[in-house]
Amino acid sequence: MRRLLLTTTLLLTGLAPLPALADDVALLLGAERYDRLDRVRRADNLLQASERLERLGFEVLGRANPKVGAATDLARAFQDQAAEAERLVVAMSGHFVTDGTRTWLLTAEARTPDLFSVQGQALSLDSVLQVLATRPGQAVLLLGEGDRRSLDLGGSALRPGVGALEIPQGVTVIRATPSNAAALLAGVLTEPAAELGSGLRDREGVTVEGFLPANWVLMPAEEDANEAPQGGLFPPRPPSGPSDEDLNIEADLWDRATQADTIEAYRTYINRYPNGRFAVEARSQIEEIQSDPNRNARRAEEALSLDRAARRSIQNNLTLLDYNTRGVDGIFGSGTRRAITNWQQSNGFPQTSYLTRDQISLLDAQAARRQAEIEAEEERERARAEARDRSYWSETGARGDAPGYRAYLDRYPDGLFSDIAKSRLATIEDQRREQAEAEDRAAWAEAREDDVIASYQEYLASYPSGVFAEQARARIEELSAPRVTQAQIRQARDEEDALRLSGIRAQLLELRLRDLGHNPGRLDGRVDGDTRDAIRAYQQSEGLTPTGYVDRATAVKLLTGSIGFDFSD
Question: What pTM, to 2 d.p., does this model score?
Fold first, then answer.
């Protein structure tokens, strides 16, 4: 159904309009068709009970396939009118989602909601329950749940279906399939004086939670419903209209028309009941069929109930056959429909953009064959590449030298023989390093044996970064220094002995050497090896004979510029 059911205003024949007689309000929302999600068949059949509710004194607010704005507006109007109502009935059918504690009815524009986008494409059941809680014992929530298996929510925090509702005291919640929910609303729920406890309990395919006393009656008897308001302004309404048997015959013909869902079936109903309860809907369905030449194909595909995984598989197959679906997401948008149309044209099928089971089977077979062809071609290419690899190896690495191994690795760094080439090249490098080190040691041994400046220079020319390069340079420096004879050393020692370097004098010497940048070791007044090295270093820096003893020349140099340094008696 695609009509908006507005509030029914009751008028008394011959009198001016008066306030509406209805003390009750009903909200009916049936989401059968979705822009992006699978259809929920019979979800909008709820609205067929609208006239029956109106005859019972209800103001009916309803719409088939509402978008979130329309659903929210109707829910707000329901809330406003509920403040003055005695009985409240809410019936919803379609796709529901839940996060475990909260539940929403998805509206027509819903795509694949997640926890943060669901509010913008759904109506909250928890909010509806808060309104119903204002009329305990006189409030019913009827839910027609679509097939949860047809709703793929991916990895979002939501899951399909109705969650654990927190039902307020005195509110009755009934859950069923969309077709059963429509039958309940047009049957026992709106049957005058029906005891719902016995009428609903243990009914197959129906779950009831919350308030449900055994003898509970929601709808008044017909005479109560037609009773004039206090003050006698309106006389009782005499029975009028078709009998129950006539209504049942009409409903049966309508059910057969909707089941056939063809122009002929709907015209048969209209010819029999041109002003019947479903005449507007029948004409609307005829217009829809005539305006959509691919309607039957679409409905046939919908009947397949393809889930998200099946849709992805179809998109993968089309893509494999070079029909661009513009993404593999399990959603049949314009890109996928265009790809299906092109595939149908190539295979001689009517270009409806909707698939049949046989077409899906053929598409799968074609994709499997194409996949096999691709794998065979990949195998042939792999064999050709392997042959080229082996041929190149035979011309390079197979010869067993380092240049060949390097040439192979430059062309095939991950080739068939790359591990062998790397291993053998590493062995060659190790051998070369060992050989170079051995040659280095041999050259150093020769230099040490000659122990002259020229031999060390020759070693450094051959091995500037060799193992013994630093030692060679040190030895060259050592050999280049002025030579000290034993006679010079004895003379310097005698001259130092004459200076009587001990105690405070030795300590002053150490202080002076330290101040001049030479390390005499501990300043303890003892002339030890560290002190001798410092004296020798000082002598070399001053161009003196490096005997390591403080002779007269050394003493004179040390005295120059020194305050309080005195070696004299």
Answer: 0.45
